[in-house]
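Section 5.1 Outputs to date
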Amino acid sequence: MNDIRFDIGSLHAAYASGMSVTAVFETVFQRIAEADDPGIFIHLASKADLLAEAEALGRVDPVAKPLWGVPFAVKDNIDVAGMPT
């Protein structure tokens, strides 16, 4: 499962072929663990929280929600509710 590419086109294709958002986020957290660099992120949302938020988004719709299921990081100088800056 670690061969997932995280560009938007590849993720859209993966979701269209039946890949679950759970599988994508499992790979995200696996790659973060493999990097073994605790300084990469000041704050890392929990896997459970991310999966709950993804479930709340409903079904994948790349036209109406083109960033649905696309993992991203927020630079620490950007203020996001619920995340430390």
